[in-house]
From TrEMBL:
<protein>
    <submittedName>
        <fullName>Uncharacterized protein</fullName>
    </submittedName>
</protein>
């Protein structure tokens, strides 16, 4: 199992699902702000995440794992 200590202990949250949800909220909302450097997350992507309450379904989690695993393997085989 992966460590879910994202360095945000001041949230005082013990439920792993809620920790991940809050972290995703932080990443999406922070990534949507234009700080004048680099890219931002598109508004429609942030809106979609907001509607879902920043939760990720089991199907999405599986899809993401497969996608990232496949990308990692293809990059290392080059």
């Amino acid at each position: 199992m992966l460590d879910i200590d994202f360095g945000l202990k001041e949230w005082n949250e013990l439920d792993p699902k809620e920790i991940v949800r809050k972290y995703r909220q932080f990443v999406y909302e922070t990534g949507a702000v234009d700080a004048g450097k680099g890219k931002t997350i598109e508004k429609k992507i942030v809106e979609k995440a907001r509607k879902k309450g920043y939760k990720i379904s089991r199907v999405e989690r599986f899809r993401y794992r497969c996608r990232y695993f496949t990308r990692l393997n293809t990059q290392h085989s080059l």
